[in-house]
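Problem 12. The chain below contains 239 residues. Write out its predicted structure in token notation.
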Amino acid sequence: QDAIARKEKRSETFKTAAVHGLEMGTPALKTEELGRRAPQWVRDNLVTMCMRCKEPFNPITRRRHHCRACGYVVCARCSDYKAELQYDGNRLNRVCQVCYVFLTGHVALEERDKKHKGILEKEAGEVSSRSLLCSSLQLLDKNGKGGTRGWFVIPQDDPLVLYIYAAPQDVRAHTSIPLLGYQVRDLPQGDSRHLFQLAQSQQVYTFVADTEELKRRWMSAMARSAAGITCAEEEEDAD
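Solution.
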């Protein structure tokens, strides 16, 4: 009974804090309307950082998402929760952590956060020294007109995942892309840029390599990982 009481008290504390944050931060949508009516989304170009954790957005490290409950622009980690929304037929929708706590009364999933941290907590220098391939690349935005350079690594001990760092000596990867099942596409050279893509369903990533040789090496490495080939022996067997 004591354990149950403590859990209920902690849930109520989180819920009260969530209500306070919503009332202070989302004047366009009243707290009692949260989940019952569609919010007005904050426009992407009005914010430069996650409206929950305050981390800055950019195409590699942190991409923009909208909470379907309050309309805030948030990063992937802060919106890695789902709750039923009445205005959408009680279907599960992506929501931010604050709205998740308010709508469900549950404490945020701490174990999920720990899991995400563990996946990305690989030092770039150490991983690069034991990698199948690593180098600087540019990842273009959806329009193909701009993008951000980063340090890209396929580790030997995790050969089915592409890790993306902002710099070669960062202590933590900003994001990762599971390569299994992706298709590797060659693109014609344009404006002296050596272009290639990773594509799966509606998800497409476009990369720019510094040289044609480096582009070919990345295409070969990514194609092996996408096919589930994790070592040289398996590659020979496949041939």
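Discussion. The first strand starts at residue 65 and ends at 66. Students who got a different answer should revisit the alignment rule from Section 12.3.
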